Amino acid sequence: MPDKKETRKKITSLLENALASFKEELGEKKFAKRIEKAAKLISEGLEDDKSPKTEKAPKAEKLKKEKPAKAEKPAIAKVAAKKAAAPKAKAKAKVAKKAAAKKSAKAATK
Fold this sequence. Notes:
With 110 residues, this protein is an all-alpha fold. It folds into two domains: 4-48, no CATH class; 73-110. It contains four helices and no strands. The chain has helices at residues 4-18, 20-26, 28-43, 74-109. The longest helix is centred in the last third of the chain and has 36 residues, at 74-109. It is elongated and about 105 Å long. Residues 42-75 are annotated as: Disordered. This is Histone H1/5.
């Protein structure tokens, strides 16, 4: 296989010919830079064949046991229910106070 520089030049010329219509849109400098980057990325893995690396055996992954979902404790469920009901109870108490205040205001005016 040819060396890196020759490979990149070949890829560059092929890309330039294939994408000639974009040269006018981008301008020569931008087009050339992008073609160079693309050629570099494409040729990146081609030259690695010179020194074959030995593949490492994949490590045996530890099998994780899935833990069953914990059931909510009754006390926690009660607390959660109280917290959820608390805003409703406060709102009801507020409305009741307003109604009582209106009644007492009416009674005081009579």
